[in-house]
Write a structure and sequence with these properties.
By secondary structure, the chain is α+β, with helices and mostly antiparallel strands. It contains three helices and 13 strands. The chain has a single domain, classed as Jelly Rolls. A hairpin with a 2-residue loop joins β10 and β11.
Length: 243
């Protein structure tokens, strides 16, 4: 009797696991509701269609598709990659998994006029906060904005999971307000081209770059020259500006 009970419990556990797996969101896909809301996939989990290296054709071999993820496997032969299409105002969501000590970034409004992607496009920092050498932390707008101090730690708010785990980032870019979120936690907001924004740019290294943050449209770029990093579920919802 006891043996039969153990077998029944084991079968029930297997069934529960299978049902949970079936109900889990599929990677690199859009739900019917997301499609209806205007979301578009920027990566299908199968190939590098829709991406190319900054100011050159094709994608260097340091970028590969592995297990449904877009992976920078060799930062010495990867470089920054950008979307084929340009975007002005949008909501961007993606999952990233940074290596130990890794450093990467997401840039937007990138144009071909700059000598590098970050010479025109503001960068959302991605890194292993525990071991990366750069003092700019994950989710910050590089050298411009950082989250408020967490009263529990006395340090800037940090909602990231450890290196090797998947994190979700959400970026909203509109004329009225831009927002950064990590794992559902809002870090801060800002307004592109505002007096505060321009003042911060002028005081940073970007103040010497005449094309930085001057375009309201451009490519989205993923940084691939600072460390190993993986991306998946890269989706974007273009936002039409109301007149």
């Amino acid at each position: 009797m006891k043996r039969l009970l153990l077998i029944a419990l084991a079968l029930a556990s297997i069934t529960t696991f299978r049902l949970a797996a079936a109900d889990a969101p599929k990677v690199n896909t859009l739900t019917p509701d997301e499609k209806a809301a205007g979301w578009k996939l920027l990566f299908d989990g199968k190939d590098l269609t829709g991406w190319h290296n900054f100011k050159r054709e094709g994608v260097l071999p340091g970028w590969q598709v592995k297990d449904g993820a877009l992976v920078c496997v060799d930062p010495h032969n990867a470089g920054d990659i950008v979307t084929v299409g340009k975007f002005d105002w949008f909501e961007l969501q993606l999952d990233y998994n940074i290596s130990e000590g890794g450093n990467s970034g997401i840039m937007f409004h990138v144009t071909d006029q700059g000598g590098s992607a970050w010479a025109t496009g503001p960068e959302i920092q991605l890194e292993d906060n525990a071991k990366a050498a750069d003092t700019q932390r994950c989710g910050w707008l590089y050298a411009l904005y950082q989250p408020p101090t967490d009263s529990k730690t006395g340090k800037p708010l940090d909602a990231t999971k450890p290196a090797g785990e998947w994190n979700r980032i959400r970026i909203l870019i509109t004329p009225e307000k831009c927002v950064h979120e990590i794992n559902g936690v809002k870090y801060f907001d800002y307004v592109l081209g505002s007096e505060d924004f321009n003042s911060r740019v002028a005081k940073s290294k970007f103040g010497k770059m005449p094309l930085f943050a001057k375009s309201n449209t451009g490519f989205i770029a993923l940084q691939g020259d600072h460390g190993q990093v993986s991306f998946r579920n890269i989706k974007i919802r273009p936002i039409e500006r109301k007149n």
